[in-house]
Amino acid sequence: MSGNGGSCVDQKQFERTITIQALRVPKEKCQTYLKSLQGFVLDRPRLKCVVLDSLGSDANSRLILLKEQAAGSGAPLPAAVGDLCAKDNLEVCEYELKLDYNYFTAEQVLKELLPKGTEVPGSFETVGHVAHLNLREELLGFKHLIGEVLLDKNLPRIQTIVNKVGSIENTFRVPEFEVLAGKSSMVTEVKQHGATFKLDFAKVYWNSRLEQEHKRLCTKHLRGSKTVVCDMMAGIGPFAVPAGIAFLQA
């Protein structure tokens, strides 16, 4: 397994400045105006539509940011917004909304960086702090870029990004992995069914997607039962351990 040194991402290319219109309102009337302006205020994930008024001199005023579609720079205000401004004598000003790399999701960043038309990896399996990818052949040339972006956007929950190399051919069904980003250690902990499993994902077969099936079998067939279970493919016990817990809870 090998990691990747150096950054693949030029974060500066994601810096954006969007000029939109805003209404200067008294702080104590923000909620009232937000109700009146429903459908016209800025509606972007992780961004506030009410901000401090750094443009004005009144510490008690706030800016209500309007949607780009409703009021881009220099665009006429929608009739309902214009009527409200005229009725309450509200001041309209321009506001520069600044976005950077940290604002965008992993999917948005990868769509920007990967060749146009490339299908962006949308999901991955997690095993403790390790994210396990199974990249298609056409994405292998961008594997370190993909790993770095996914790591950036999932820290601190995810600390290692790996990709499966080749097919599983060994006796213990342990895949070979390549570390694409993050720390190289794959010793991690997984909590399932009230138990904590400590494992080295590089040496032990583990499939988190089987958790619900294990739970179903234990709950439906083993809880309250005197059945003796012999798990011939026990590994480190992702089925045997919850089966034992179900027996003890009988």
Describe it for me?
The protein has 250 residues and is α+β, with helices and mostly antiparallel strands. It has helices at residues 30-36, 79-88, 106-113, 143-154, 211-222, 240-248; strands spanning 16-26, 50-52, 61-65, 91-99, 125-127, 130-133, 160-165, 176-182, 187-192, 195-200. A hairpin with a 2-residue loop joins strand 9 (187-192) and strand 10 (195-200). Helix 5 packs parallel to helix 6.
Order of adjacent strands in the largest pleated sheet? 2-3-1-4
What fraction of residues sit in β-strands? 15-25%
Q: Quick one: overall form?
A: elongated
Query: Alpha-carbon distance between the termini?
Result: 44 Å
Helicity range of the residues? 10-25%
What's the number of extended β-strand segments?
Answer: 10
Q: What's the total helix number? A: 6
How many strands, what sense, and barrel or not for the largest sheet?
4 strands, antiparallel
H and E string: EHEEHEHEEHEEEEHH
**Structural class based on helices, strands and sheet pairing:** alpha+beta
Radius of gyration: 26 Å
How confident overall, as mean pLDDT?
88
The low-confidence parts are none
